[in-house]
Amino acid sequence: MSDISKKSLSELVKLIKKKEIKSEELTQSFIKNINNDNKLNSFITICSEEALKKSKSFDKSPKLDLLLPGIPIAVKDLFCTQGIKTTAGSKMLENFVPNYESTVTKNLWNEGAFLLGKLNCDEYAMGSSNETSYFGNVMNPIAENTVPGGSSGGSASALAADQTPTTIGTDTGGSIRQPASFTGTVGLKPTYGLCSRWGIVAFASSLDQAGPMTKTVEDSALMLEAMASFDKKDSTSINKKKENYFKNLNHNIRGLKIGIPKEYRVDGMPKEIDALWENGKKILKDSGVEIVDISLPNTKYALPTYYIVAPAEASSNLARYDGVKYGFRSAKGNNLIEMYENTRSEGFGDEVKRRILIGTYVLSSGYYEAYYLKAQKVRQLIKEDFDQSFKKVDAILTPSTPSSAFKIGEKKGDPISMYLNDIFTVPVNLAGIPAISIPAGIDKNNYPLGLQLIGRPLDEQKLLNIAYSMQKKINFKQSINRWWEN
Amino acid sequence: MSIDKDKIKHISKLARISVDEKKINDLTKDLASIFKFIEQLNELNTDKVEPLSSILNEPLRSRKDEINDGKIRTKILENSPQKNDEFFVVPKVVE
Amino acid sequence: MNKENKKYLIEGEKGKWEVVIGLEVHAQVISNSKLFSGSSTKFGAEPNTQVSLVDSAFPGMLPVINEYCIHQAIKTGLGLNAKINLHSVFDRKNYFYADLPQGYQISQYKNPIVGEGEVTLDLQGESKKIGIERLHLEQDAGKSIHDMDPSNTFVDLNRSGVALMEIVSKPDLRSPDEVNAYVKKLRSIMRYLGTCDGNMQEGSLRADVNVSVRKEGDTNLGTRCEIKNVNSIKFMQMAIIYEAQRQVELLESGKKINQETRLFDTKKNETRSMRSKEDAHDYRYFPDPDLLPLNIDNKLIEKIKKNLPELPDQKKERFINEYSLSAYEANILVSEKEISDYFEEVVKTSDKKLAKNWIIGELFASLNEKNISISDSPITSVKMAQLIDCITLGVISGRTAKEVFEIMKETGEEPRKIIESKGLQQKSDPKELEKIIDQVIIDNKDKVAQYKSGKDKLFGFFVGQVMKDSGGKANPQLVNEILKQKLK
Predict the structure, then answer these.
(1) CA of C57: which chain B residue's CA is closest?
(2) Which tens digit of pLDDT belongs to each residue from C171-214?
(3) What's the pLDDT score for residue A333?
(4) Cβ <8 Å between C96 and B16
(5) Do B38 and A235 touch (CB under 8 A)?
(6) Where along chain C do its domains lie?
(7) pTM of the full predicted structure?
(8) What does each C-alpha distance from A240 to A102, A193, A230, A231, C195 come to in angstroms?
(9) Domains of chain A
(10) For chain B, what is the radius of gyration of the CA atoms?
(11) E-strand spans in C231-314?
């Protein structure tokens, strides 16, 4: 059989269900790819022994009526996995082994999958290039020394390098969609509240959302079906009936209306991205979709709003990392305050510290109204922009990122330039709505570029259907030679 | 509104993060540029806008008054940086 | 009554000063589990055994609110005649301390669950209304133990996350006595409602005391200082007296009061400033994004209102009318629910006047002597009723009843058993009494003659003799009647 690690998740599930492949051989093929890699640095923890054990025990008594039977899955190291180190890409949690399992990963294991390893990410999910991880930079499989995007950089890299058949990430300002765009893969951020946040290391509580990162749209539908659930332990979890996104996936998008927001055409946008966007419109038109020009007037304020709200929530969420209960504690410090200051200075990296300071500032006495409260008002306006638009259209089409993958180190010195990576993705998180990035083309360097579809709250099925239809027409094929292998 | 070193030192104290004297100049520069960026929001008049109170249109869900947690002391303490069977242990507060 | 005479004033060197006091009372909510987690709230458990992953703030943990705690806050608000806010918000109060695992406390800042209300105090026959500013729900912190080790602090998170109601008064209190009455009243209301047990030794009730002073007659408020975490009424009063004096001395010497947070040192009996609190006030409150706003509907409030037990003020009015009590007596009997229940059980069957006298008098004295509560007294309401009935039925005299009571309070025996075993029954047979009286008259002919010639005071002498000769058991009323007859 040809390299099974190259196959999509849905194909693998089919093969397992048809008993044409065994979980053990599947798992072996991924482990081989992981072990052969000495450049990408996509993994922080590799669970080969445990995964093989689980694969063998699955093969002994396979449960074939589950959604992900016998599938090994590596996950972003932000999901707490019981008994397996969970670092959040930080020195602060370098040796932290949770004795509990996140709801989303538990849902995967309940559907027959098991843990293959923990994937590298920007520290505490703060970053757009996986250059802030304590465990080193991650490389994008598309070209040496390019960034995979972030913060779910390790996830996107491992997926594109066939080191895991599928994976899950988290998206707070674009951390699933942007790396998906940079690596030529599919990344979905569901509606806020659709997937439980319990057991995920929190960055910005009102923005964080777990989502699938996959090779195809149908894989994404399958994963979402497994991941999404109502969780009593999460007060922001939506109580709705489970949907069969995979089973109900179809190409019938004729008659739908798709909006093109004029504010997303930013100055200096590369011609290739514009061309990609135009091509996307054409494909949709050919499928019987009506293209509608819309306006999201407050778009340009989304990024500044995000960089007030997210750091503010993060500064509070990261206050628990104080060296008292778990994680790193500095050896220096004769009293409690010194212990706190040293632990947090040594344990956190520069980007995290920057964001905590921003967040502390915008909440501080005398600045709360001018910054945080103001940002929450602008956020309301941004949400209303989308609400208004969705009265006219069923979904919105935009580019995913303002550029393709850049070189490692290229944007390191300039925080604003780094933040601008998320210009198209951030408004979606502020509004709490779902969006998916699908690979739509390549640039002059043959680097992949993504298109983003944004949908109404809880309208994932429609979003997936549109993406599914586009995927077929675009027929994006990526063949990467494994330059990172020995 | 300007960000200066003293402000940063004050904020760091609030956040319990000690800032290296060597790094403080770069940090001041970075934060100043970030603040300039986020101050774009001042272009918008939001006097008549209500701040977003919650991204979900749902009521706050509550739970019944049942004891269904706790009694897991070993689990709670097993990740402590300073091991003890009964308590969390930290350096003394200087009062 | 001239109110001016009753004002509490401090005599400074340069004039008289008024003390203005506001209290922030923290009351632990009675509930099985904590405010945002399912751990038990029971007092006295082994350290860190009532702690969940949520309570100890592990990565990825989230709060879910306890519906019963919401009801308890509403109940208390109704008991304070306060406005229940239909919309309220939970905010994070951010600061660092070893017993605050999240690095923030979930509290309520600008939108508390309960708004303005009032409490009526009874101060020596006068009533005074104290305004309530607000009541909100918040998490309690854990416990830091500093004295187990010279260089380390030990942290127990059992208490971390237990629901607290913070009740903020308006600055309407003017003296240590008023503070005493206020705290007792709050405590009583919450105990009646079953929303807080008010057990100050166990820490269920503590207060931050805000004190400022101003010249007598001045209507502006002076700069106040906050004395944190005082856990007994006595200490509150001592702290107020010390602090007010300190402020008066400072102001009279031309100095200014620094608005600051202070601690009351119970050993030295003085308040002192807490170290470096300048930035402690910047709590950076913002709405907790892990929770949604709390919206209550009027139906819930009506339902809770309907099921409220009778509160002290209502009960007091009823007692005054139903049992012909004075305001003073009614006050004492409603001060604790256990006492009012006890009283009502006794008067169900027995004479109400005797009941009130015996309970307020002898019973309370015995409780004080033994430092126990009425529920722990060996003299149950049933036994008390029995004792009173024995007096009413003439089985024993009032004086004998005191003897019986003394035995009851030690042994908890039934009064009838004591009377029987000690043969304390009153002699009420007129024939038997006549015999004794006749004998006394015969033995004291001279005194009888003196009495008959006008020395009325000698009547007591005859009564005394009869009582002596009857071993103290003669029925006093009958003795009086028969003697009067015989000495005519």
Answers:
(1) B76
(2) 999 999 999 999 999 999 999 999 999 999 889 999 999 999 99
(3) 86
(4) yes
(5) no
(6) 13-304, 310-422, 430-486
(7) 0.91
(8) 20, 10, 7, 10, 35
(9) 7-486 (3.90.1300.10)
(10) 23
(11) 261-265, 270-273, 286-287, 294-295
